[in-house]
Amino acid sequence: VQDTGGSSAVSKCSAAARGYIQDRFLRLLVGRRRRRAPLIHRGYYIRARAVDHCVQDFLLRTQSCPRTQILSLGAGFDSLYFRLKDMGLLHHTVVYEVDFPNVVCQKATLIKRMKELSALVGDTGGEGLGASVLSGEDYKLLGVDLSELTELERALEEAGLDSDIPTLFIAEVVLTYMENSRSDALIQWAAERFPQSCFLLYEQVHPEDPFGRVMQQHFLQLNSALHSLAQYSDCEAQQRRFLGKGWTECSVMDMNEFFTCCVPGDEQQRVQALEPFDEYEEWHLKCSHYFVLAASKGMEPSWTPLSPSVTVPHGAGPVGVAGSVPAAVCARLSGVPGLRRYGHHSVLIKPNVILTTGGFGEEDGQHCRLRNFHMLSKEAGSWKAGCMTKKNPDKTWGERLYHTVSCLSDSLALVVGGRTSPSSAGLGMLYLKFLKTCDASDPDNIAVELVSLQPAAEPATLRWRHSTTEVTFKGEQYLFVYGGRSALEPVLGDWCFLHTPELSNTVIAVEGPVPESRHSHSACSWQGGVLIAGGLGAAEQPLGSVFLLRKLEHGFQWQTVETHPPLIPRYSHTAHVHEGKLLLVGGVWFHASSVPGITVIDLMTGLCLDYVIDVEHLEWPLMLHNHSSVFLPNEKELLVIGGGGNCFSFGTHLNPEPVLLSLTSILPSH
């Protein structure tokens, strides 16, 4: 548990060094320095922002009080006192910090050693008395085990904590490491003993969904289990907990809600532009698994973060479920190497033959950008794996993620876009030439030749997280390349028509209101045009819109497809059309109460139904984002390949094997 505190201090320090948070004191309190990944920086930014939001609110509301106090529980190497003192905000406030005795001894030694810190604390005459390790006029550092409430109460009394003045309690990922009976007792003690007080809690939620299971497993492996989750698994349960333990007001929100509603738009943009970033799914999943709670008693209601002008676009409340879809592993594909990947692309190159390319995943026991191509073929009713051999060097391929592959014929496919690193330009187009016909009876016998292209349309295709869809116009075949992002533009809303076979960029008239820019959306061919659904928009907010690029005589026209109930905004899903129904598979949304399963939109009526995926027969968490899926209309099955991602600091999760989803119950036979 103490190690988690040290690790989070290093992460906060790294976030400060990159400009996410303004804090010049962290580097003095953290011995070792490590540069963390952008995803970690964002995670610690939102945590620091939420805590500061509540602290500033408390200080503002109590500024007319003659005396106030802040009690930071399990403070570790936090720099809160030094920042507040430096900003001149502690004229009548004393800060108490409590942690394990050996942690506070280390911190006290650091403070005494650093002039910049010791000067702010000032004269420390009172240390060595009981649990008090360092005692200045407005700063008290106490070494006590928080789970020993009697001992804690005695130590705080000795150090001068006054139960009659306004008090702010801070518990930043602390109480969850204690047994629930002990953390409950502490919450109740604070409410009973301090008639004018606020309590700020920042912790994890949603342990049972796929990301939550990976998160729980991580903390179990660290031998620091998250005890709160068993009893208080969501925000509503935490709210009931505090109201039941004597607090009179309590507001709570997850970090997606907090970022959307409590961080001003210009500040959101500043943070989003600090570093090249392309891990939106993991960022939003991390934010949906942490919450900030503010409870109060005997004071004005704790901060109400939602101003009347802000509405949360992803409303609370459960998702209406129309039924369930069973998931099963493909028996013969268990343990096949090369299919544990994400950010890849899978395409049916011939009936019963699937080609998977690119992405990030596992190769020879290492996690890396994948160069190998993978072939699946179906024979005698079951799938088997085979690898494709490449006839020319790997450098042509460029280890790409988030590209598209479109089949132009039995022997030719086109790769469009993709990236290596999010800071580098998008990659160019490639032909994949299959040198033998794709004979399903002998999948191992296929070779592919990679041919680099430099057509006139090249600049328009240097993008990733886009879509490439086949359309027909005046009897001619085109590929419609739409949306995505590039190294310079975090989101694109433009498009181009590539005329096959020579791939020239052809101007075709498109009328109607242009959809808002998006990436990580889905696109399907339908009636000669294209259906676009969902995606991530300009403000990194999921979109719930569905558009049809409808074919007209003289060009195309954008039309909105109205859905009812409205489609829950999502992105990083896959999609297929079958007999007038649009199927959306998986993805990421802000509805923290559940994860997206399969949504069926009737394109005639607009009726939108959500189905959960029954994972009872899977022994591992099924993460349905950054996956690929292939629809098999004859069997009414979906084959899901890969998926997963880098789960914050909890490790990388790759779905270990392909999964078959049976759609017979939701696509009735005629």
UniProtKB/TrEMBL annotation:
Keyword Transferase: yes
GO molecular function, one term: tRNA methyltransferase activity
Function: Probable S-adenosyl-L-methionine-dependent methyltransferase that acts as a component of the wybutosine biosynthesis pathway. Wybutosine is a hyper modified guanosine with a tricyclic base found at the 3'-position adjacent to the anticodon of eukaryotic phenylalanine tRNA. May methylate the carboxyl group of leucine residues to form alpha-leucine ester residues.
Matching InterPro entries: Gal_Oxase/kelch_b-propeller, Kelch-typ_b-propeller, Ppm1/Ppm2/Tcmp, SAM-dependent_MTases_sf
Keywords tagged on the record: Methyltransferase, S-adenosyl-L-methionine, Transferase, tRNA processing
Organismal lineage: Eukaryota, Metazoa, Chordata, Craniata, Vertebrata
Entry similarity comment: Belongs to the methyltransferase superfamily. LCMT family.
Name listed for the protein in its UniProt record: tRNA wybutosine-synthesizing protein 4
Subunit organization: Interacts with RNF144B/IBRDC2.
GO biological process: tRNA methylation; wybutosine biosynthetic process
Organism whose genome encodes this protein: Serilophus lunatus (silver-breasted broadbill)
EC id: 2.1.1.290, 2.3.1.231
Pathway where this protein functions: tRNA modification; wybutosine-tRNA(Phe) biosynthesis
Reaction it catalyzes: 7-[(3S)-3-amino-3-carboxypropyl]wyosine(37) in tRNA(Phe) + S-adenosyl-L-methionine = 7-[(3S)-(3-amino-3-methoxycarbonyl)propyl]wyosine(37) in tRNA(Phe) + S-adenosyl-L-homocysteine; 7-[(3S)-(3-amino-3-methoxycarbonyl)propyl]wyosine(37) in tRNA(Phe) + S-adenosyl-L-methionine + CO2 = wybutosine(37) in tRNA(Phe) + S-adenosyl-L-homocysteine + 2 H(+)
